[in-house]
Amino acid sequence: MTNAIEVKGLRKEFKAYSSRSGLKGAFRDLFTRNYKVLKAVNDISFTVKQGEMVGYIGENGAGKSTTIKMLTGILTPTSGEIQVNGMNPHKEREQFTRTIGVVFGQRSQLWWDIAVQESFRLLKKVYKVSDEDYNNHMEHVIRTLDIGPLLDKPVRKLSLGQRMRCELAAALIHNPPLLFLDEPTIGLDVLVKLKIRQFLKEINEKYNTTILLTTHDLADIEALCERVVMLDEGNIIYDGSLQKLRSNWGDMKQVIFEFTKEPLQEQLQLITQGLPVTWVRGDRLNSWVANLENKGDSMSQLIAKVAAKYEIADLSIHEISTEEVIRNIYEEGVVNG
Question: I need a labelling partner for 108 at 20 to 30 A (CA). Which of 97, 208, 283, 291 fits?
């Protein structure tokens, strides 16, 4: 299987300027400026196979969008090598852009004041798509995303969910083998998210479309991606299967206790000392959540120790969420392993 994306030793640095205070400082800034070099992406390497759906995740400022912009040819790397669809994105730009589709959740590629279908026609001309290819492919896209009734409306009159479905369709007019999605479901309601997720699964199965997805909504990752690449301060700290991530770091349970009378956190920590557990306040009145490493008989010990000391009104046990797993990894500063 060929690689759609090959990245080796990729780095992007930016100069951040700082101003001196006062009139004298401003005058000095006219001649010499203070700056420091920030590494947004720091010597990362990874590959994505043709047909893979990969989640590219990290906190704000981790370097996700900077990476996407280099992979799509918008930014030039400071150093390192990039091959996307067998091309250098920023050196073979015109030919390269015909092989990718891009959706930025906070930027539009549709013209604001004209009907959606007119934007589609313009993009069809830009990508030199034949009438036959356009009709065969876009009929399926329009039907699946349920945007037929929206085609004659100006983009400015669409809701956010309607616009994002149209943005996704626009990125697929030339049926690219590789699709970059940067926060494509930001701000969308549950039903629209489900429709977009289902559609992405369909095009991946039908056309073997490679998808690189960045998002803060980990439900998108769980629904679509078997593999995740996790970034922190410009470095890759995990690259592997989502299942392995959960099994390595997610072998935890959440035990939610509702007490008849709320205890203090210090008291809970004291009576469960020695157990692999952390306590956080729950959403309900008199409730506490125990995040517990599920080792040996730690669960029965936890419940026994708490029940011996406090009167429990209710108790429930849950699998820890992927979001909680990833938060734990960032807090512990775990390096790829």
Answer: 208
